[in-house]
Amino acid sequence: MEHIRMPKVENVRLLDRLSSRRAVVGTLYLTATHVIFVENGSETRKETWVLHSQISSIEKQATTATGCPLLIRCKNFQVIHLVIPQERDCHDVYISLIRLARPVKYEELYCFSFNPKLDKEEREQGWKLVDLNEEYNRMGVPNNYWQISDVNRDYGVCDSYPTEVYVPKSATAHIIVGSSKFRSRRRFPALSYYCKGNNASICRSSQPLSGFSARCLEDEQMLQAIRKANPGSDFIYVVDTRPKLNAMANRAAGKGYENEDNYSNIKFQFIGIENIHVMRNSLQKMLEVCELKSPSMSDFLWGLENSGWLKHIKAIMDAGIFIAKVLIEKDWISFGHKFNHRYGNLDGDPKEISPVIDQFIECVWQLMEQFPCAFEFNERFLIHIQHHIYSCQFGNFLCNSQKERRELKIKERTYSLWAHLWKNRADYLNPLYRSDHSQTQGTLHPQIAPCNFLYKFWSGMYNRFEKGLHPRQSVTDYLMAVKEETQQLEEELEVLQERLANLQKSQSGNNKVKSKQQDRSKQFGLYTSNNSLANTPQEYSNDLKSFPSRSPSQGDEDSALILTQDNLKSSDPDLSANSDQESGVEDLSCRSPSGGGCLPSEDSGKDSDEAVFLAG
Amino acid sequence: MEFSELIKTATVEDVLLSRPGVAAVRGTLCITSHHLLLSSCPRGDLELWLLIRNVDAVEKRVSGSSGTVTLRCKDLRVLQLEIPGMEQCLDVAGSIEQHIVIVYLSSLSLLRRKTPSRGLFPSHESLAAQALCSLDSVMLTYPFFHRPPGLRLQHGWHRAVPERHLQRVASQTSQWRLSSVNGDFGACPSYPRAVLVPAALGDEAVAKAARFRQGGRFPVLCYFHPKNGTALLRSSQPLTGPNRRRCREDEQLLGTVLGEGERGFVIDTRSAQAAKQARMSGGGTEPKSSYPRWRRLHRALERGRPLQESFARLVEACSDPALSMERWLGRLEGSRWLSHVKAALSTACLAAQCLDREGCKVLVHGAEGTDTTLLVTALAQLILDPACRTLEGFQELLEREWIQAGHPFQLRCARSACSHARGKQEAPVFLLFLDCVWQLSRQFPFSLEFGEQLLLTLFDNAYASAYGTFLCNNEKERSLCKVRESTHSLWAWLNQPEEKHKYLNPLYSHNPLVIWPSVEPQSIQLWQGFFLRWIRPSQHLDEAWVEIQRLVQGKNSSLQESTGKRLSQPLPEPSAGTENGETGTAGTR
Lengths: 616, 589
What we know:
The complex is a heterodimer of chains A (616) and B (589). Chain A is α+β, with helices and mostly antiparallel strands and 616 residues long.
């Protein structure tokens, strides 16, 4: 609280990038956890809530006649453009936010104060939702080749690995420890994914400390052990995700890559995914493109190309390291992806921040676009996960390793996002997903190489707060409603059939012939009714009313409003509060390139015979 | 000259046909007057049934004793034929090439055999608009021979389109009337016989106004907005010329359109600069001094050859497999196609906004009034009018605003993106329209009754068709060629129940509102379904589409069944009667 110099500023204007006409005046509040903008006057008093932890940068621009502009950019790609009348107020808000957006202690983060009113048991339940051991069991380990090693029991070997790590059965503690000493930050090779079908596996590690010539017997043995864990294969691929040049440069620092001469039966492959600094700059550039005021098509495409973002996305996809299901929990968190460093939740070195998880989420989205029936979840699910990685509302994505999370007692003191998402799972389902569909069987084969055009700009993510840019009608929501309705109808049908059968039974004794007829009438009930009651449409439509509203597509203003909330649909207080609800379909005035929503002025050139047109 | 005379080799055995995404087949190639056929060798299945007219470019490569003929089709398909025997290969290629040239020249011959024009505006466009149809060549095309089973000639043609349009307008206002001033195509050769004009103006004045507009395309009503009584008009440019000519009747016509104290907008689809320059060659735009109540807005839309080249560049980029990700975005941008889509949609929105929001009447024109003008007026109607968004309404819109409004399909669609020859008349304005419609359907997935498949079919038929709907350049030519009497209508075929369901959007539900699309660059996407139709793997997307249909149909059928059950429930109440009823029904089924 002591950091808030200015808890409330009045007559602040909130600008709209797309239309100067849609600026609104309201009051700005700073609280311990949120920045809140409340619109003046309007009956609904629309509110915009932004968590401090979402703020990625604050920019104070030069004061103009109307006031002092303050630009707040968020990690979930929301951009809030405020104009504060007094320069002094603006400065105070600016200074306060700079401090609030960069907490120095974990305890200042929102998840330690967030209380969704769940009892202890429910909270513990939430943390148990994703059980890594179960996930490994699903994959088919432990088995004859792989086992859990307790070598990292008290984080003695590697502090960024979890305590339980799967390694080849033949890898002794001696080999593991020896190997770990030869690896950057002691991240020895450990199992990531095991394929039951063919014993193939994916392991991961950090770079070896090979320098120009160093070698390590135990590390070589470790890789041998991994190779032998798949009896069907004579060699293993070692995939280095860096461009070769970077890996070679690292040798000068005593690090580097595995020398094929020292390791028997390995095949080495560089993939050339750029490092975090390149990625950060690339994202930065792309976001600048998203923020352009009335860009032309060319500006946009040029900017997109120059940012290189889609190129990087494609490079990652090409690497083929992503398998269908969400592996977030296992792949990223337990194995010490540096969440705190990479997401900048705490004040720290800005150079360590990188959008790797954003890229993972986008890659999944790109796959969903190519395989619309293959994923059980929908776009909204990905967007909400991205949101919460930065919101710090839940404890899942805090800290850099399991060790740190245990020390902070994250599970005792915060809530799990997965429980929250699970509670609202209906919002996150893909209506096209069927477990028996061909696209859900086995591996997906995304188009690689020449199909550049399949990679698209994801405006649903990077412009997610500008609802006007998105399709105004959501197919996903509509189909979910359809599915739900179908189910209800089927249930109702069953009840009716039962009642019909009972009625008939009660009327017509226990005659065998009759019971046959019953079955038939069940079968042909449809036709019977159509014939006899064809001219009673009233009753038909009355019945319809008792069903859930047919679709959000009906076009009346209310349903249109629901649609514009789209991505913010869940019952998340934070999300729904800051939804930038535009008017419905009807109210979206079209934006002509020059007029920004207003009718453009006369552009007659320098024609001398033009009189001034008096606006009527 | 019969096309069959061109054929040097009618059948070739042992030809290998390969297409992207489909396994290659070997079979017998057969060239008829209008088609290329390939029947597979052992089984005799017909693997290819291609209108020769669909071929845009032929490439041949001979090596040793065999050769490869690559056919680039107007619908962007690429077919490869491996033909044994060098001579045969050259013969096949030569026959198809000649066919293409003859077809192309015959479309140009429309230009040479023009009727004496009014001599007002000697550009190619206007010559085309006023030209007499080259009867012999058009009447030799396939639609005059195509006789699909189950369809009757003269069936399915949209007749009395202006009359029906008036009927709708007349229920709202009496300000417009049907004029037969063009009954003999005398006032404007590219207009239909009947058009809607202000009721207050006589035919004589209209005829005089027509002489003041390029190609005689005087301002006519194309859409009446019932919500506020405003109207959308279109015309060609006024012939003000360097001396700033005026025409009292034209001023009168536009004057009577506006009510007391009303003001209107002229949306000129050229830049202010281009409109001014047009004066030098006899055209121009409405000067403020003579049309004081009309306010002019300029929105430069691409047309003609630059548009054709944009199309060609994009298609080239799409089919270049060696492109890296970075280069791809650069090429996409460099084609400028998406910029044209954005500009067309923005201008249509502007027109719609003037009508719906500002409550003003709007006149749209560029130069000839047959291309970008129709693009804008047709799109604006789709945005404003829910009736145009049904399958039937959309067909009517196309008939009224494109076909009968005199878009010169024959000239514009003579060549597609792959042709190496670059003519002056070709321009994919209609494709640009279809692309914009697709953008609308993407942003409003429930608001159009038809789906992407219809747009694709329309494109294919505009460029090469077995039906007469898109033949010729205007109604006058169609009537001379007896298109309606001697060819089948595309609409008749599309609207057969077994065909129709392919074109319907299962998600459609009537949306009575204006649909305002976003025209931000983030919202404009490449129409993959068209530009990558033969390149991208579509299996997974098709499966998704089937799944959507299954879901919606599943609901509809269980709704029916459930309703049926509910209603049938009271039946068992009276004891004897019911049983009979049940038995009876069951028996008859």
